Amino acid sequence: MPYHKNKQQAFQAAQQGHKQALDANAQANLVQGQSSYGQELKHVKEEVNEAYAQIENALEVASDSQHKQLTQFQQDLKGLVDSVNNEQ
What we know:
Elements: H1 2-30, H2 37-59, H3 64-87
Region (Disordered): 1-21
Protein name: Small, acid-soluble spore protein N
C-alpha cells in the first residue's frame, strides 16, 4: 500500500506543478507590456522547471492512466514554453 500512496502523491505533486506553471503563465500574460513582465516570465520559467521535475519523478512510478496524463502535462508545458519563446 505505501507504493500506491507514493504513486498517488507523486502524481498529485506533478498535477499541482502543472497547474502552477499554467497559472504563472496566465499572470504573465496579464502584465504583458508592463514593467513587471520580465519578473513574471522568470517566475513562469521557475514554475515550468519545477513542474517538469515533478512530472519526471511521477513518471517513474505512474500507472498507465497516470502516465498518459503526465505525458499530456509535458506536452502542455512544451507548448507553453514554445509560446513564451515566440513572444520574445
